[in-house]
Amino acid sequence: MSSTEVAAQVANMYDTILILDFGSQYSHLITRRIREAGVYCELLPCTQKISELKFKPKGVVLSGSPYSITDKDAPHVDPEVFNLGVPILGICYGLQEIARNLGGETSLAVKREYGHAELTLDPQADHHSFHLFQDVPSPTNVWMSHGDHLESPPNDFVIIGSTSTSAYAAVAHTTLPIYGIQFHPEVTHSVDGSIILRNFVIGICQCEANWTMSSFVDKELERIRNLVGPTGSVIGAVSGGVDSTVAAVLMKRAIGDRFHAVLVDNGVMRLNECEQVKKTLADNLGINLTVADAADLFLGRLKGVTDPEKKRKIIGNTFIEVFEAESHRIDEVSRQSGLGPIEWLLQGTLYPDVIESISFKGPSATIKSHHNVGGLLEDMRLKLIEPLRELFKDEVRALGTLLDIPDDLVWRHPFPGPGIAIRVLGEVTREQVEIARRADHIYIEEIKKAGLYRQIAQAYAALLPVRSVGVMGDQRTYEQVIALRAVESKDFMTADWFPMPVETLKRISNRIINEVQGVNRVLYDVSSKPPSTIEFE
Fold first, then answer.
1. Cα–Cα distance measured from residue 400 to residue 372, given in angstroms and rounded to the nearest whole number
2. CA distance readout (Å), 170 to 95, 157, 159, 162, 200
3. For residues 93 and 86, is the Cβ–Cβ distance under 8 A?
4. Considering the entire predicted model, what is its pTM?
C-alpha cells in the first residue's frame, strides 16, 4: 500500500480539509492551526490532480507561495478544484490563484508589503461572506507578506476587508463559498488568524471537530489490524525515543505477539542507550525486543565518509539490511510458532518528515534525506507501516500519554535515526563518537538538573571538525570543539534557539572541558530554523 493510499485511509475516517501547497514557508502552519481547531487536514502539492484524489475534502485551502503569480514557472492549481463543490479559501498567493482562474486581475505591487497591517472589515458585506470573520473585531492586526496584489477581483466577488495599502485584502464570492485573503491567518502575528481559520473549517465547511488522539487511537488500531491481517507479523524499528516507543505500543496493542521489536545498535547511539532501551521497552512495557549488535558494520561503512548526505544514505541502507537479516531469523521462528510470516516494517515517520521530503516541483534540491523517509533501499523486501505518519510531534506526545507511556519517555527529546553520526561533523570514528556522546550526556544531565529539559524541544552536543588552541594546567593544548544546540519548537518545522541561562552554560562548559578528554572549547549555537536546520547535518 502506497503512502498516498495510507493517508487517504485516515482522511476518509474524518471530515478532512485539503491544503494545496504552493511552496510557502507557512504552509505547515496552516495544517497546525486547523488541527488545533479539532479538524483533520492533509497537505498535498498544489499540482495534485483532483481526479486522482483518494478522498473527498470538505473544503480546500490554497496556500501562499514564494513565487509571483506572473512568473513563467509559477505553480498553478488544477482548475478542477473549483468544480469540487466545496468551500475554498485562498491565502495570499492562493487569493491571486483564485483571481487567475475566475477572471480577476493581478499585478506586481509597486512596493512589496511585509509585516503588520490593520485590517478593517466591511460592515456592508453580505451575510454569507461575512461568516469568515464572525467574532473577529474590526479593525484587527494581520500579517502581510506579498509582492503581488489583486488589481480587480473576478465578477461576482465583493470586498469584505481592506487595509491602508490593500483595497482587496479580503474578498468573497456573492453566492458561492469561495474566499480570498491577502494576509496570512496561520501565523501568530495575525492576532485573530486562528478564529478566521476555525470559522472557515467549522462554520463554513461544516467539519465536525472530532480530530483528537482519543478518537484517533481506536481508529488507528482497527486500521492496523485490517492492514496487517489476521496472520501477518510486523518487525519494528525501535530506538527508545518517543516516536518509535509510541509506534511500538500501538503495534503491540493492535496485533499482540505478532509484533517483534528490534533495536539496532549502530554504534552511534547515546551513552548507555541500548541498556536503557532494553529496560524500558522489554522490562517495563512488555514489548518483545531483540537487540542486534551491528556497531562494527556501521562504523566500518562510515570510515572515511565526511559528506552528510552520504552518511545518511549509508546508515539508512545498512539499517534496512540489518532489519532484513533479523526479519529472516524472526520470520522462521514466527512461522514455526504459527504467528505468521514477517511482512511489514514499522517506522515512526511523523507528518513533518513527510512535509520536508516532498515538493510541488517534484524531485527538489536536497536539503537532507530525512532519516525516516530517505535513504531506504529501493529493493527493500518488507512493506512499510507508519502508524504515526499523519501526526505532529505534540500529537504523538498526547497519544503517548493516552497510551499510559511514562512521562520521561513521552517528553524525551528527539534523536535522529543516523544518531551521533550526523552530530560528528566530518569522519565518524569510534573515538569521535565517544567524545560527542559523553559531552551530550553531560549536557542533558545538567539541563535536567536545572529544570530546563521540558522547556526545550531538543538539545544535543555536536563535535565540530575543527581544533582550537587552549591552555590546561601549564600546557598548551590543541584540541577539539563542542557546539551545544538547544531549540524551542512546537512542531519542529520552525524553531528558535533557547535562551540558556549563563550560569547553566558555565556549569556545562566546565564539566565538558574537564571530563571529556580531547575537548578544550565549548560553543553555544544561537541560530533559528529557518534558515538553519535543527541538526548540524
1. 19
2. 9, 10, 6, 6, 13
3. no
4. 0.76
d(CA 347, CA 373): 9
What is residue 529's DSSP assignment? Answer: B
Q: Given 41, 46, 92, 205, which residue is catalytic?
A: 92
Residue 207 annotated as catalytic = no
Which of 149, 150, 162, 157 lies closest to 121 in space, CA to CA? 162
Active site residue 92: yes
Angle (deg, nearest 10), helices 308-336 and 295-302: 150
Which of the following is catalytic: 97, 186, 390, 446? 186
**Distance in angstroms (rounded) separating the CA atoms of residues 157 and 105:** 12
Cα separations in angstroms, 451 against 1, 240, 357, 442: 44, 22, 34, 14
189 given a catalytic annotation = no
**End-to-end CA separation in angstroms for the chain:** 31
SS3 content of the chain, % helix, strand, coil (to 5): 35, 25, 40
Q: Which of 184, 260, 370, 371 is catalytic?
A: 184
pLDDT tens, the chain, 537 aa long: 555 565 667 888 899 999 999 988 888 889 999 999 999 999 999 999 999 999 999 999 999 988 888 888 888 999 999 999 999 999 999 999 999 999 888 766 655 667 788 898 986 656 677 789 999 998 999 988 766 778 788 888 988 998 887 888 899 998 899 999 999 999 888 989 999 999 999 999 999 999 999 999 999 999 999 999 888 889 888 888 899 899 999 999 999 888 999 999 999 999 999 998 888 888 888 899 999 999 999 999 999 999 999 999 999 899 888 878 888 888 888 778 777 678 888 888 888 777 766 655 543 333 444 444 444 444 557 788 899 998 988 899 999 999 989 888 899 998 888 999 999 999 999 999 999 999 999 999 999 999 999 999 999 999 999 999 998 877 888 999 999 999 998 777 788 999 999 999 999 999 999 999 999 999 999 999 988 999 999
Cell numbers at residue 494, please?
Answer: 520552525
Contact 317, 374 (CB under 8 A): no
Backbone angles phi, psi at 338, to 5 degrees: 80, 15
